[in-house]
Each structure stands twice: as structure tokens, then as C-alpha cells.
């Protein structure tokens, strides 16, 4: 845990606020790489993950941008309504589940809405390295576009294309045209609302992009229909203990209740912190962290949200 203060808070747009976090004594923060995020501990015991959006070379501060989401589970509202400049907060050290592949010759960055936060950090890093990249940023209107001025004044401004869906005439991103000619040494990175990411990734796959070239980050898991959920068992391989998981509770909830130590953070299948090895059985994957290929192997699953298709899962715990 790292204790920080909110050194600055201001609005990027009507619905997006920017927090600048620093150590109270001004000491350096842990280094981070483009695409990294932190766990932010909020009032009321909430823990939420936010991507860092400042230049990775900066160690005196972290910057995060948070969208006010009325349908959120409370994190964004807490940031907007309960956090003020000068407040003391706790954060976790940066983790990167969405890294740049520095072996790529070229990088294609695509951001939708608040998904610009890690993408902007990537653009800052690639520009600093003199790497070959282009960035596409999709929002509704210029007024709802965070960091528009910062990008416009950046050394890479000529590599960024803005796409607006609610102006006349609209300048929506033509994903089919952009992704129509995949190259084996070009990597694609996309972040934004889940439907946006799904559209970009599905279009890329339809155009013949190799899955290994596709990189994505998720903020929230898709809504899941729990109507057909049923109870199942998990066996802990280390002790042989068999535990029943009720239809209305997650594996993570039950294990934590029994004081079985398992790391976790987001609790909705996004961050990958709790991913656990499966030794036997067939998971019902409901997370947004594992790739389709990883899910197909059934070697791991996310106990915070995923369940079982088989009657029992044997876990490497």
C-alpha cells in the first residue's frame, strides 16, 4: 500500500475528472510502464482500478481520469463526489495487464471514450521512443473529448485522428477500412466500453488479424444472466477439502468466508488478480481478463465471477 494525497483535481470534461496523486513528502513513486493501472482505495471500502494516463517517465506523480457513471457500482461517484484536493488516499503499486509489445515494428492505438487513459500513456511512451504508431480516438463530441488540448499540443498530434459520432457531419471511425490490411509486424491496442472493444476486435478478426497481435483492456465485465446458475463443488488440491458453492454466491466469496487466502481486487472478472489454476473440471468462464484461447484450455479461471459447467472443479489451492 502507498499513501498519497490528491495534489490536484480538475474537470477534463463535464463528466470526466482528472486526479493527480503524489506522495505527501514528494518522494518518488514506483516506476510504471505504459498501459499500467493502480488499485485506488476509496471511501466506504471500495477498491477500483484506474489506468495511469501520464507519461511513464514521471515518478513524482500518477494521473488518473475517471468518468462519472451513474450505473457504476459506486467507484466513479465516490471519486467525483467524495474525493477532494488535499485528501489522503491509499493506492496499490502499478500493475500492467495491458503492456506494449516492444517487439512490434508498428503500433495501432484505438481509444473509445474514457478508454483513452492507457492509450494516451502508450502514445506518450511511443512518441518518446521515436516508435512508429498512429492513434484513433473516438468520442461523441469535441466537448466530451478528454485531453483534446493536451493531445493537440503534444509532439505526436499529427499522429492522432479524432472521430466524433454526434456532430454533423459525423466522423465515425471506419473500422473496416482501418483494419482491412493486417500486417504481421503491426500490433493493435484497444480500450473503451465493452461494445466498442468487441466491435474493433471482431472487425480485426474478420479482416484476418492474428489473435496474438490484438491487445485489449477491460474496465468492466459484461452483464451476465444468472437465472440458470446452479450449485457446484470445488476441491482444494492442497488439502483435499470439498466446498459447495451455492447458486447465488461466487467461489471467491465462499473461499474468503472460510479464510482461504486468495488475492483479489476488482471482484468482477476484469483485473485478473484472482485467476486460479484449474486441475480438473470445466469452468464456465465469465471474466473479461482471459483471452479466448486461454479460456479454451480450461487451465485457469476467475473465481470472482466464473462458475463451473462440470459438477466439480479441482483448484490448485
- Indicate the overall shape: globular
Order of helices and strands: EEEEEHEEHEHEHEHEEEHEEHEEE
CATH architecture of the largest domain: 3-Layer(aba) Sandwich
The order of strands across the largest sheet is 4-3-6-1-2-5
**CATH hierarchy class name of the largest domain:** Alpha Beta
Structural class: alpha/beta
- Spatial gap, N to C terminus: 25 Å
Number of strands: 18
Q: Average pLDDT value?
A: 93
Question: What fraction, in percent, of the residue positions are helical?
Answer: 10-25%
Main pleated sheet: 6 strands, antiparallel
The CATH superfamily of the largest domain is identified as: Nucleotide-binding domain of ferredoxin-NADP reductase (FNR) module
Count the domains: 3
The DSSP helix count reads: 7
User: And the CATH topology of the largest domain?
Assistant: Rossmann fold
Oligomerization category of the chains in this entry: single chain
Fraction of residues in β-strands: 25-35%
Low-confidence segments, ≥5 residues, pLDDT <50?
A: none
- Report Rg: 21 Å
Task: Provide an overview of this structure.
With 317 residues, the protein is an alpha/beta fold. The chain folds into three domains: 2-91, Beta Barrel (Elongation Factor Tu (Ef-tu), domain 3), CATH 2.40.30; 106-217, Rossmann fold (3-Layer(aba) Sandwich); 232-315, Beta-grasp domain (Ubiquitin-like (UB roll)), CATH 3.10.20. The protein contains seven helices and 18 strands. It has helices spanning 75-82, 116-129, 148-152, 175-178, 194-206, 251-257, 292-297, and strands at 2-11, 16-22, 37-41, 47-51, 62-67, 88-91, 106-112, 132-139, 160-164, 186-191, 214-217, 232-236, 242-245, 276-280, 283-284, 300-301, 307-308, 312-315. A six-stranded antiparallel β-sheet has the order 4-3-6-1-2-5, covered by helices on one side. It has a five-stranded parallel β-sheet with strand order 9-8-7-10-11, sandwiched between helices. Strands 13-12-18-14-16 form a five-stranded mixed β-sheet. The two termini are 25 Å apart. The mean pLDDT is 93.
